[in-house]
Amino acid sequence: MLTTRQLITTLVAAAGLVWTVATAWTAEAPKDSDCLLCHEDKTLAKTNATGQVKSLYVDAARLKVSTHSTNTCASCHRDVTDKHPDDNVVPKPVTCANCHERLSERYNASVHALALKAGDAAAPTCRDCHGAHEILPPTNPASPLYPSNLSQTCGVCHDQVAAAVQASVHGQGTAAGKREAATCIDCHSEHAIEQLKTNATLRVSAEVCSRCHASERINTKFNLPKDRVQTFFESYHGLASQYGSTLAANCASCHGYHLVLRSADPKSSINTNNLVATCGKCHPGATQNFTSGKIHVTGVPGKAIGEVINFWVRRIYLILIFGTIGFMLAHNGILWLRKIAKYYRDGTRTILRMDLCQRWQHFLLVGSFIALAVTGFALKWPESWIAKLLGSHEDFRRWSHRVAGIIILALGVYHVFYLIFSRNGRQLFKDFLPVKKDAADLVQTTRYLVGHTNERPKIGRFGYAEKMEYWAVAWGTIIMGVTGLVIWFKIDVTQFLPRWIVEVATTIHYYEAILACLAIIVWHFYHVMLDPDVYPVNFAFWDGKVSKHWQEEEHPLDNSVPGAQMPAETSSTPTPGPDRPTNLAEPKS
């Protein structure tokens, strides 16, 4: 049972709750008509903290045609009660985030919001740009955000900048009703207003100016040069900015930030008479000869003698490069092929390392793996040479990838049957099983690599290097096969499993592909191509043969070679049988 004290406390709390609810029920928000009794007075005003006189007049007629016409006064001024203004409580500024949360978040990242947070009471807020009560959509010519009105709106705080913009080619285009002409918000963003002067050099050119000047539609419509962005990035300034230079000139460095004028205009910074001063900002001592060159160099010759000479020099060098390097490639390529053919016909390659069935499996594995890598990464980088190699055709790429995937999965199934039902396969599987000696070989190889010993471990048919690679291929095939099928049949999979399973499978598929490709390049290519003992390639993949010298160096304990002995407790390779690959010929001493 409750004590007397607990009972009294409960009753007091209940009474307080009832009083709060009753007060809230009876305290109605003021009606719009009540607010307008005072706010329709055109003389109603107040002085803010900065000494500015702010009008509190509300035009009811303009309020009715605004985008907020369906709102009530109290829906925005939520802290105002029916006791206002007799309660002498100053209403708080309207919080637009109550309805426009996403836009408010972007505004909070702008220079305006940062200035406001830093104590600048004059920094613009939502109402300074959009208006207070007569808010109109930006498509309405009467809106302060209509393109032709933006300079005037921003000019309230940035009067000199606004005057420069209005005199520029952008401002002239806007005044002429050309919507494509850049306005303040096209360059500085709409809500997350940023100060571009302190921004990265590359960003100004790559993201701001390029929005319009890399547009084929805009360049065609207004007869602008189509290659201005491309040729800039091919120039020293563009290359240096891409390389990370913060001092290299960007578009605005030469053309200006706000007062952008045509080169024919005498006041333009890129007018012939002003180029010495413009270039001299970064290149002290620049002369008229220095400025006579071109930043936007194209491959089409102009009328100037220098452009004609430069054009033909470029053509002559292209012919010289292709002719000279082509001759060198043909000469050395044929020589290399003849040496390869001589090495291939070398009579010392007598040890059979891979039988015909194993070689065919290897061919299919190599072909399907390469096809999967090319068709897979072409989707990740659609603008790369890999994608262009496939004709940039998604249907062809997708089905090529799937066919290669089916081949490698079918090969994996066949290989399992080969390991189970073939004598050579069973022996292959047994030889690939890890044994204790593999760990000891790895330790001794490590000591050999760091110079602690001069003796390499003696390896049997397969050492730890081959075993690591074999089981990595098996693991990778399973992982890539399962995730690939999940991605392919995602509709069927999501009948029973959540969609995030497909996302996780896609991530695994992508990173496993990177891991597999890098492992092949770093590990496998070294052992079969880059190793000086087999360079340029170990031809065992083609005819299965290796030299006796290589076999004795790399696999001295392989029992398939007469005279080699492997300790029974560490070996998994028996004496060669009739179906096991062995040496084809024993050279006479």
> Which CATH architecture of the domain at 349-554 would you pick?
Up-down Bundle
CATH superfamily of the domain at 349-554: Transmembrane di-heme cytochromes, Chain C
CA gyration radius, whole angstroms = 39 Å
Largest sheet: spatial strand order = 1-2
Strand content: under 5%
Structural class: mainly alpha
Structural overview:
By secondary structure, the protein is mainly α. Among the domains are: 299-345; 349-554, Transmembrane di-heme cytochromes, Chain C (Fumarate Reductase Cytochrome B subunit, Up-down Bundle), CATH 1.20.950.20. The protein is 56% helix and 2% strand. It has helices at residues 4-26, 32-39, 60-64, 73-76, 101-108, 111-117, 126-130, 150-155, 159-167, 169-175, 184-188, 201-213, 216-221, 228-234, 236-242, 251-255, 275-280, 288-291, 305-344, 356-380, 385-389, 394-421, 423-432, 436-449, 464-488, 490-493, 500-530, 540-543, 548-554; strands at residues 45-47, 53-55, 349-352, 545-547. It has a two-stranded antiparallel ribbon with strand order 1-2. A two-stranded antiparallel ribbon has the order 3-4. Helix 9 (159-167) packs across helix 10 (169-175) and helix 22 (394-421) crosses helix 23. The longest helix is centred in the middle third of the chain and has 40 residues, at 305-344. The termini are far apart. Residues 21-26 and 563-589 have low confidence and may be disordered.
Please give a quick description of this structure.
The chain is mainly α and 589 residues long.
